[in-house]
Amino acid sequence: MEVKTLGTYYKLLIQCFCCLFWINANAQDTVVVSKNFLFNDGIYLTLESFQQNQPDLHWDSVKTNIFTNPQTFLTQIEFIKLRNQTENKNLDLENIWGISLAGIPYIRLDKKAVKKDLTVFAGLQLRGKICYFTYEDYVTKKILMPVYNPVTGRPYRVAEIERESLERYKKIMRFDTGEIVDFNPENVRLWTADDQQLIRSMNELSAPALEERLFKILLIYDDRNKVQIISNRKVEN
């Protein structure tokens, strides 16, 4: 009876040791996605590939014509084709979720978002549980302008004219779902609701002060609420 109890004890001890070893080994294989985390370079066909930091294609395995503007954090791609394919066929850029260049991930924008001839990708300027990116585009607006009488110099009617103006769009993306919404106080409150201390701080601010400090609030949230991904996966062609 004593031998059986001792054997059971040692068996449980070995199981606990193996469990602790597994947890420790896996902890060593993960890394925190900080605001400046550098992703593996390449082409991500899906959100899941991005979340695992595992591009589906190396840049060495494709031919491409790509243009990057470091000031705007926008990248435009004319085409991508596989080097080893016999047919001279381009990949469908609409089937690409995102790319990574020099460690910075860029996500593909919808064609309706920007008026460009090429496919546009916006760089994630902040990486973490909530990612942040921006892009600019010219929009046409109708405005009312007074028409003046050349004799009297007085306005006698109002005409509607079209003017182009450069608009900047700010967006946030959830790392776990890929959902994208506008970067504004309402959405930030909704997505940071699990950090009550931060919510209380936001409630103490006036509307103008909240707008001014909104990006800093996002930085604080990402710093407190970590996202971890596997760090040592090899990228395969």
Task: Please provide a written account of the structure.
The chain is an alpha+beta fold. It folds into two domains: 32 residues; 198 residues, no CATH class. Strands 2-5-6-7-4-3 form a six-stranded antiparallel sheet. A hairpin with a 4-residue loop joins strand 3 and strand 4.
List the topology elements.
Blueprint: H1 2-28, E1 30-32, E2 42-44, H2 47-51, E3 62-69, E4 74-82, E5 98-101, E6 104-108, E7 119-123, E8 130-148, E9 155-174, E10 180-182, H3 185-191, H4 196-203, H5 207-224, E11 228-230
Antiparallel strand pairs: 1-11, 2-5, 3-4, 4-7, 5-6, 6-7, 8-9, 9-10
Keywords, separated by commas or semicolons:
2 domains; 11 strands; 6-stranded antiparallel beta sheet; disordered C terminus; 5 helices; about 25% helix
Helix and strand element order = HEEHEEEEEEEEHHHE
Shape: flat
Instruction: Classify the helix fraction into a percent range.
Output: 25-40%
SS strand fraction:
25-35%
Query: How many helices in DSSP terms?
Result: 5
Count of individual beta strands? 11
Quote the distance from N terminus to C terminus: 58 Å
Report Rg.
26 Å
Stretches with pLDDT under 50, minimum 5 residues: 16-27, 232-237
Mean pLDDT over the residues: 85
Task: State the domain count.
Answer: 2
Overall SS class: alpha+beta
Strand order of the largest sheet: 2-5-6-7-4-3
Biggest sheet overview: 6 strands, antiparallel
